[in-house]
Design a protein that fits this description.
alpha/beta, Rossmann fold, 4-stranded parallel sheet, 13 helices, 11 strands, 15% strand, binds adenosine-5'-diphosphate, binds 6-O-phosphono-beta-D-fructofuranose
Length: 350
């Protein structure tokens, strides 16, 4: 018999996390189960956050009634490196038991799910709701926040393309996604961007300069290049420091390549055209959740409580064919995300 469920958010915040907390709270209350909010991710379970007095809070319906349409995460979030140590995981499981928590709902990405899986191995039943804008989990079609992040990026790129058109200036737009290019790819497809660079694929700056030169020659003086933030790790060997220094930009040793520097390189390789860079950044994470993410959160929160109430644990919740489902953490985390090379080539060719 489950009497008390704990809930936490972990890793980067993602639109839809609050809707998921709200859904878990509604479903727990309906089933007569108490809900304990644990703030600041796994840090909150260990008293390691900067606000330990505020880290544990009972969540009744009244407390969370209005949070579904608030941005960010009501439970705060954090990364907790300490928690990767087995002895610290044991401490967390013990702390949960001391709080009379019978089971835990973890809202986060693959790292947070790894943590939840370890807690299960220590006898603490856990279920995971996939909350990350990156959409980097292979077992699910979508993660909470991904749809919202894409919509934010699409809106931004549409505005950037309007100004690009007004001024005949190409644009480099950097989106988030860590090691997954999903946000970049979907944004590029949805906006008609002529080029995309993702962390999954090695790329050569000269190929992109060639493509931009060809577009300019055809009269397109305002093309958009969408880049996934970690793509620079996959840039083919190119002495960009020397190149920029030789072309009038001072770069000091130790400085990293950025989207702004990429725009400078393209400008200098493409006849001096005024390419401009924009980093979309946290507007992707702090946005109001779309209807898709909010409805996904509703279903996922409900399923999380149902599973725990039925004694089904060690489960990652995902979305398949438009409906939520669950599978064991280990199976979910072992599934590699396929990369759609065909779409990547289409964006960069058409
Ligand atoms: P996400 O959950 O979005 O992937 P992170 O990778 O930053 O975000 O992980 C969030 C937190 O999950 C980490 O700070 C840590 O507390 C926990 N975590 C990550 N990887 C592991 C792991 N291998 N084992 C246990 N806990 C982990
Ligand atoms: O996982 C979400 C995410 O926004 C990634 O896209 C990004 O690489 C990372 O978090 C950034 O984390 P932080 O905001 O802690 O720098």
């Amino acid at each position: 018999m489950i009497k008390k469920i704990g809930i936490l958010t972990s890793g980067g915040d993602a639109p839809g996390m609050n809707a998921a907390i709200m859904s878990v709270a509604r479903c727990a209350a309906y089933n007569g189960i108490q809900l304990l909010g644990i703030k600041r991710g796994y840090n909150g379970l260990l008293g390691l956050s900067d606000n330990p007095d505020d880290d544990i809070q009972m969540l009744d319906i009244e407390t969370v009634l209005d949070i579904a349409d608030q941005r960010g995460t009501f439970l705060r979030t954090a990364r907790c490196d300490e928690f990767k140590k087995p002895e610290v995981q044991r401490q967390c499981a013990d702390n949960l038991r001391k709080l009379d928590v019978d089971a835990l709902v973890v809202i986060g990405g693959d790292g947070s799910f790894q943590g939840a899986m370890h807690l299960c191995e220590l006898g603490m039943p856990c279920v995971g709701i996939p909350g990350t804008i990156d959409n980097d989990l292979g077992f699910t079609e979508s993660t909470l926040g991904y749809d919202t992040a894409v919509n934010v990026c699409v809106e931004a790129v549409r505005s950037i393309r309007a100004t690009s058109r007004s001024h005949d200036r190409p644009a480099v737009v950097q989106v988030m996604g860590r090691n997954a290019g999903d946000i970049a790819m979907r944004t590029a497809m949805a906006t008609g961007a002529e080029m995309v660079v993702v962390p999954e694929m090695e790329w050569d700056v000269d190929d992109y300069a060639k493509r931009l030169n060809e577009l300019i020659a055809k009269g397109n003086t305002r093309a958009t290049l969408v880049i996934g933030e970690h793509c620079f790790h996959r840039m083919k060997e190119f002495d960009w420091r020397k190149f920029l220094n030789d072309h009038g930009k001072t770069i000091y040793p130790g400085e990293a390549i950025t989207s702004e520097r990429l725009a400078s390189i393209l400008k200098r390789k493409c006849g001096g055209i005024e390419a401009r860079a924009t980093v979309i950044g946290y507007t992707q994470r702090g946005a109001q959740a779309t209807a898709y993410d909010s409805a996904f959160a509703f279903e996922a929160g409900h399923l999380a409580v149902q599973l725990l109430n039925r004694g089904v644990t060690n489960q990652a919740i995902g979305m398949r064919h438009g409906r939520v489902f669950s599978m064991p953490f280990a199976d979910a985390l072992s599934m590699k995300k396929p990369f759609n090379r065909e779409l990547y080539d289409l964006i960069n060719t058409l």
